[in-house]
Amino acid sequence: MRVEKEYIESLGDEVVLKIENNMYPIIRLGEVLNLKTSSSESIERMLVLIMNLGEQHIALVVDELLESKEVVVKTLGSHLKRVHGITGTTLMGEW
Predict the structure, then answer these.
(1) Do residues 10 and 45 touch, judged by C-beta distance below 8 A?
(2) Largest Cα–Cα distance in the chain?
(3) Contact yes or no for 47/62 (Cβ under 8 A)
(4) Distance CA 48, CA 46 (A)
(5) How far apart are CA 27 and CA 61, in angstroms?
(6) Where do the domains of the chain lie, and which CATH numbers do they carry?
(7) Which of 32, 57, 67, 74 sees the fewest Cβ atoms within 10 Å?
(8) Number of C-alpha atoms within 13 angstroms, CB side, residue 93?
(9) What average pLDDT values come out for the chain (95 residues) when binned by 10 residues?
(10) Are 11 and 23 in contact (CB under 8 A)?
(11) Residues 94, 60: contact at Cβ < 8 Å?
């Protein structure tokens, strides 16, 4: 989703996204991947992906959206359920 800056709040040292009385800690993907990122001051609307990480929900901020596709994510099944860090997959027709 695209989020206006008015939904961003500071709670002590933590920056959060507040949507419909829900607070989501903000994590910048570029910082997690140690990438050079653009200045957040110049961005009027941030691109945010709300993610469910088990019991925790976060707002993952990305610099830009290159392409948009609708996909169905399926579980890996019993034979691949022990693969660490991957909870699902999708099959793309063009690959």
Answers:
(1) no
(2) 47
(3) yes
(4) 6
(5) 6
(6) 2-62 (2.40.50.180)
(7) 67
(8) 4
(9) 88 90 90 74 75 88 84 82 80 73
(10) yes
(11) no
